[in-house]
């Protein structure tokens, strides 16, 4: 199993938050026009730790977008409207009277797209007094800890993702209704084990939010193995949990990490600004 590297950077202090993944990066003000070598260090730390966190940032939408553009290509969220002046920034909001939270299940973002995002960036604007944390899970580790036998089986399998998988679509249903969008079924096929295009490492790439079955298998046939994998992928020792504050920013790698927003703050408002960065076709 590959150990996480802990490098010394010139511009960043890297504080891992758990054994498996996640690091807080200190020493950068994201509102500034960052030098190329600072951006390169942030990218390296992000590849090493899968999800990186920044605290106490004060960003206008334009500044958040400018930072995102240094890392990748912002794209609109399928079927959801962005901010009026910033279509690439999707508000992720749960209001006091709402019970359902956006994306409230373990998932990797929008794997029902042919090219799922490389990364997503979430910036906290309003955070409840307690609760509303987000969990992350390392999918390199999830793959590497399986037996040789099961890895060989999974290496040859393709998973089908659907935007209409009941549990996950429910977490977006209110927002879509509000936006007056007819839910269109989006489907995509991806290898169950993908090779990360930048690190070259293999990661499990399926998720309980969107994966319905294996290609060439029925849903009934797929279910027992999927259930085993869905439970394995989120073993506590593969995860970290982030406690948000206003001004916190998280950037996660959708190609090798899953996430799960915890819905434990009914009666309180939570407002995030989200930017999605374009990805390539998983192989
Ligand atoms: C997302 C998502 C997590 C959160 O924006 O893709 O799943 O903590 N949100 O709100
Ligand atoms: Mn998500």
Q: How would you portray this structure in words?
A:
There is one protein chain. The protein contains six helices and 16 strands. The longest helix has 15 residues, at 219-233. By secondary structure, it is an alpha+beta fold. The radius of gyration is 18 Å and the shape is globular. A hairpin with a 6-residue loop joins strand 1 and strand 2. Bound molecules: N-oxalylglycine (OGA) and manganese (II) ion (MN). Residues 92, 102-103, 109, 120, 122, 134, 259, 261, 272, 274 line the site of N-oxalylglycine (OGA).
Order of helices and strands: EEHEHEEEEHHEHEEEEHEEEE
User: What's the pLDDT, averaged over the residues?
Assistant: 94
The CATH topology name reads: Double-stranded beta-helix
Which ligands, by name, code or SMILES, are bound?
N-oxalylglycine, manganese (II) ion
CATH class: Alpha Beta
Query: How many DSSP E strands?
Result: 16
Euclidean distance between termini CA atoms: 21 Å
Shape: globular
The CATH superfamily is known as Clavaminate synthase-like
The CATH architecture is 4-Layer Sandwich
Low-confidence region ranges: none
Rounded Rg:
18 Å
| Structural category | alpha+beta
Helix content: 10-25%
Query: How many domains?
Result: 1
Beta-strand content estimate: 25-35%
Total helical elements: 6
Characterize the main sheet.
8 strands, mixed
